[in-house]
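Record now logged for everyone:
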Amino acid sequence: MSIASRDHAKQLFNESKRRLADRVGVNVNNTASIARQIVRGSKSNDILMQSAKHLAQQETALENTASNLNKIQLIQQQLGYQHAAIREGCHILGNVREAVSIY
């Protein structure tokens, strides 16, 4: 092989190497650009935070609802006692009327 053909082969090899390095660099830059766009465009973190916030709000609402149901049950029980007392009072009132009408 002559010196000229060696130099030419060396130049071709170096040029191929340079082109490959340029292509690799472009691909790395494109990949980094895509990654940045995905991170910027991704709202998954915001959506997860918002979902957690809404879940916490729902938990509070459920606790308040359970508390209100317990209060309603107590009120219902008290109304039952009052109803029974009123019925008994009406029954006694009927007996009192009978007693008063006899005298």
User: Anything to note?
Assistant: The mean pLDDT is 87. The two ends are 149 Å apart (CA to CA). Helices lie at 3-41, 44-102. The first helix runs from residue 3 to 41.
